[in-house]
Specification:
This protein is mainly alpha-helical. The chain folds into two domains: 33-227, Four Helix Bundle (Hemerythrin (Met), subunit A) (Up-down Bundle); 241-330, Arc Repressor Mutant, subunit A, CATH 1.10.10.10. It has helices spanning 2-31, 36-46, 63-68, 92-95, 103-130, 134-156, 159-168, 176-193, 202-227, 241-263, 270-280, 292-299, 303-330. The longest helix is centred in the N-terminal third of the chain and has 30 residues, at 2-31. It is elongated.
Length: 342
């Protein structure tokens, strides 16, 4: 009895200890929970692809601190001077002047830009392995902010390249604003793909990419213009040449048919000649061509039999016409002596 009493007293104590442990763990779980807005933002950034240009410098210890330690983050250059729809687009007295970078600054900015993308790629791999935490979510948001900031910085400081190239080329009827827009997109792609480690200046790489974009725009405009004309162009108006040619061919075929029947080049019987002449009536012996039934009464057969005779005669004539066409392609057609009609 004493043992049973002691056992009953121990059970509540064990449950109390477990509840206390669970209670102490709950504040820790709440502290590491990820706010909904932060989670959605981080997951959106993690779903993107960040193709970075790697550099040996990134493997050095302390390079992150060296690249991103500054008294004040560089502010984005002003773009009030950028007037892509004006002919006097670079009138510095009115609109100001673009901010340019030295070679050293350009290298630093591209290294920061690509290091930010490299960092985002590393975080993606870590989150895929260990899951998303509040710390990693905040880290993703911060590095994505840096990535966008330095891409925008590099793009703004090179906008003058787009305008310089746009003034140099003339793309016919393509709107100038559309040309500049295509150049802007090409510039952004060039910023993403440029590798500063190869030793070239970015302007050399970007100008080539921008000119290629202009070339594609011109080709696309010419193709659409030819397919969808929006104004009167005499060269694109429909010609009646095909209709006239069709009538001419039909007349030539009729003349050829008459010659074959008149000369009996198809070796037609008397009945077959009668059927063809009466059915087509090109000599206008009657007021109108006769029907199958009318021709049948003349030669003393049914209209179905007339149809069969007509089809057989036309097949003979067709064979002669085809043979004549093939022969005239290689040699002149010899004169044929017409056979005597019965």
């Amino acid at each position: 009895m004493a043992t049973a009493t002691v056992t009953k007293r121990l059970i509540p104590v064990t449950r109390t200890v477990n509840v206390e442990k669970a209670t102490r763990a709950m504040p820790v779980m709440r502290a590491t929970a990820i706010p909904r807005a932060l989670r959605q933002q981080a997951e959106g950034y993690l779903a993107l692809t960040y193709a970075f240009m790697d550099a040996e410098l990134f493997k050095q210890r302390g390079i992150e601190k060296e690249l991103f330690t500054f008294d004040k983050e560089p502010e984005l250059p002003m773009t009030r001077w950028y007037q892509p729809t004006r002919e006097d687009m670079l009138d510095s007295a009115v609109t100001g002047a673009p901010q340019l970078m030295s070679a050293k600054e350009e290298r630093t900015m591209f290294l920061r830009f690509n290091f930010a993308k490299r960092k985002l790629t590393q975080i993606q791999a870590r989150v895929k392995k260990d899951g998303l935490t509040r710390e990693s979510a905040e880290e993703v948001v911060e590095w994505h902010r840096r990535f966008e900031h330095f891409r925008e910085y590099l793009t703004r400081t090179n906008l003058a390249l787009v305008l310089a190239m746009a003034k140099r080329v003339r793309l016919g009827d393509v709107d100038f604003a559309e040309v500049v827009s295509e150049g802007n997109m090409a510039l952004i792609r060039a910023v993403d793909k440029f590798n500063i480690e190869r030793g070239f200046k970015f302007s050399t790489y970007a100008c080539r990419a921008i000119l290629k974009a202009f070339s594609r725009t011109a080709m696309k405009s010419n193709r659409y213009r030819s397919r969808f004309p929006v104004e009167f162009e005499p060269d694109l108006e429909k010609s009646d040449w095909s209709d006239k040619r069709r009538v001419q061919v039909e007349e030539e075929c009729i003349d050829e048919l008459k010659t074959i029947v008149d000369r009996n080049l198809a070796d037609l019987s008397n009945v077959e000649q009668t059927v063809i002449r009466r059915r087509f009536n090109w000599q206008e012996a009657e007021a109108t061509p006769l029907t199958l039934e009318q021709v049948g009464r003349i030669i003393g057969v049914t209209k179905e039999r007339v149809r069969q005779i007509q089809n057989k005669a036309l097949a003979k004539i067709k064979a002669v016409m085809e043979e004549t066409v093939l022969r005239t392609k290689t040699e002149a057609v010899p004169e044929t002596t017409p056979s005597a009609e019965d």
